[in-house]
Amino acid sequence: MDRVVKTINPKAQQRDVEVLSNKKVGAYHHIVLAVGDLAIATRPGNFVAISVGDAMSNTILRRAFAIYRASDRGQYGGTIELVVAPHGLGSRWLCARQIHDRVNIVAPLGTSFGIPTEPVNALLVGGGYGAAPLFGLAEVLKSQGSRVDMILGASVAGKIYAPLEGKRSVNTTTLTTEDGSTGIKGRVTDVMPALIEKHKSEIIYSCGPMAMLNAVNEIADQFQLMHQCAVEESMACGIGVCMTCVIPLKGDDGLVRMSRSCIDGPVVDGSAVIWGSDRTVPEGTLGR
Amino acid sequence: MNETFKAFDFRTRFGSITFPSPIFTASGCAGSGKELSQFFSLDELGAIVTKSIAVKPRSGRATPRMAETPSGMLNSIGLQGPGIDQFLEIDIPWLISRNVRTIVSISGETVEEYATLARKLRSVSGLSGVEVNISCPNVENRGMVFACDPIASREVIQVVRRNLGNDLPIIAKLSPDVTDLVSIAHGVVDAGANGLALINTLLGMVIDIDARRPKLAGKTGGLSGPAIRPVAVRAIYQVHAALPQIPILGMGGVASGRDALELIFAGASGVSIGTATFGDPGAPLRIKRELEIALKERGFSSFADAVGAAHES
User: Fold this and answer.
1) For chain B, which domains are there?
2) Model confidence pLDDT, tens digit, residues A71-109
3) Which structural domain, as residue segments, surrounds residue A49?
4) Nearest neighbour of A60 by CB, restricted to B75, B279, B282
């Protein structure tokens, strides 16, 4: 049972930071923020909560964005990079920022992907721009000697995020689109079984929409592989106080609790998630 | 001592307890306290008001639980929590051991549950008060919102007073979604409340026009944020006019020092910061500093002098 008061990522700080770069890449924006020493504390899977709008805006909540990569060395000191789809009010505001604009962030937040102590054969599965954090993960896995195979899927070619520099750390990349406009026609899960066998994958990492994570988890189950995924649930604060971003998670004690995806996640073990519980609470679930 | 360096006299009083700061957290907006301690010293607060705790562990409602609205948001948490026993075993010792002034917020489904909660709190040392939440809108049965019924709300406060003893102040948290707020306020004060918390969220709904259904899984949710601030100011003004001796813990969309000052001039003896913390984790401390400047600019030498100032002309 939870014997301690859970808290947010102990490295998280609130800061005003400078936008170093904002470039349109296909359907997305690639944004670089100068965050100083917060970059050293950032791990693959962590996220950043960004304040959007100004005194004239009527949006009051922070927006959570997955961190694509963090770098502690560079011309401008530590940086974090984001891949943002300009869909909602907040993401459109962020994508409209110019170089040298300042934004208020809280980072790094949440859990990160677990890195095996020994080199492994890892299969990374990403959906749309949600795949972004997998590239930072690939770099870490590669640097400790692991084999990294990646599957990137989306509805159409334009929604796949696959930067050239991101592929350096990847042994193979397989693309899937639902309309067949690039790569193999179908979904990421259609190609997973064959790739798991071919590359002798030992662990699955995934990132993307909840329905995709659920489907990836079923295949991980079939092959009895460990599966770590970064979940998505709408958040108001990102720092564990609003209780809106909960998902039902099974704890080590076997009990299911509504757990904050900003504190117990976003990276969780796929086997701990009670899948398919959107708009319902599984029987017997507790709170915390 | 040089005037510039003298700490501003922010003292305020609820029942028998004097708080060194008039800025509190709003129940359900500060987690267990520990989360915010990473952003500012909790000692700056009058007190942490904890998330309303129930007798048993509660899962709360299904997701989506949140919908952003113009200058506000709907939440539909449904009083998720670990239950009073685990709360007293884990959360409270963390706060008390760090000398964080703590007001425990309690919520029951029946009058008996409020009695149980009050009895369990009676033996806890180091608390600064009890907020009795009788106005959470996120419950299955609207008939269970005690604060909508003058008789039920009075009954709850009576049993809490009887079971808690007379040492700790009781602050009754009321709903603005009623026809006659003043009569409900009179009732809970007669029943033993030392203070009133005004206002809880307002019941609202957002429809997802693509899915053609309410956006929240629980259909309705509580509206908070700057959108409701004028409702809070009105409620505080009305109740302070009727019960000028009863301290009011004001809340509702306060995002700056000037916002806090509106509630204080309307009659609030303390101001709780809620939704603003979601957008700015350091909001309680920032607002306290802005409030100090705003009070000094207007010639106030102590916080207490400003309470209810809008009633004087």
Assistant:
1) 9-311 (3.20.20.70)
2) 998 888 999 999 999 988 999 999 999 999 999 999 999
3) 13-109
4) B279
Q: Residue A76 is part of a domain; what is its CATH number? A: 2.40.30.10
Q: Is A206 a domain residue?
A: yes
Residues of B annotated as part of the active site: 136
| Chain A residues within 8 A of B63 when measuring between CB atoms | 233-234, 244-247, 278-279
The reply to whether residue A241 touches residue B35, judged by beta carbons under 8 angstroms, is yes
pTM: 0.94
Determine, for residues B59 and A278 on separate chains, whether the beta-carbon distance falls below 8 Å: no
Is residue A182 one of the residues assigned to a domain? yes
ipTM of the complex: 0.92
Tokens 């003292």 belong to which residue? B11
pLDDT digits (tens, 9 = 90+) for A245-258: 999 999 989 999 99
Q: What are phi and psi of B154, to 5 degrees?
A: -65, -40
The count of domains in chain A is: 2
Among residues A175, A120, A129, which one has the least CA distance to residue A148? A120
Q: Among A58, A93, A232, A243, which would you mutate to test the B interface (most chain B Cβ atoms within 10 Å of its Cβ)?
A: A243
For the cut 60, the answer to whether the pLDDT of residue B312 exceeds it is yes
Q: Collect all residues of chain A within an 8 Å Cβ-Cβ radius of residue B64.
A: 233-234, 244, 279
- Cα-flanking dihedrals φ and ψ of residue A270, to 5°? -55, -30
Using one digit for the tens of pLDDT, what is the confidence trace for A26-59? 889 999 999 999 999 999 999 999 999 988 889 9
**Are residues B65 and A237, on separate chains, in Cβ contact within 8 Å?**
no
Question: Residue A278's pLDDT is what?
Answer: 81
Is there a domain that residue A195 lies in? yes
Task: Give the CATH number of the domain where residue A247 resides.
Answer: 3.40.50.80
Q: Which two tokens stand for residue B83?
A: 């239950």
Would residue B162 be called left, alpha or beta, if left means φ above 0 and alpha means ψ between -120 and 50 degrees? Answer: alpha
Q: Is residue A267 part of a domain?
A: yes
Neighbours of B257 (CB within 10 A): 20
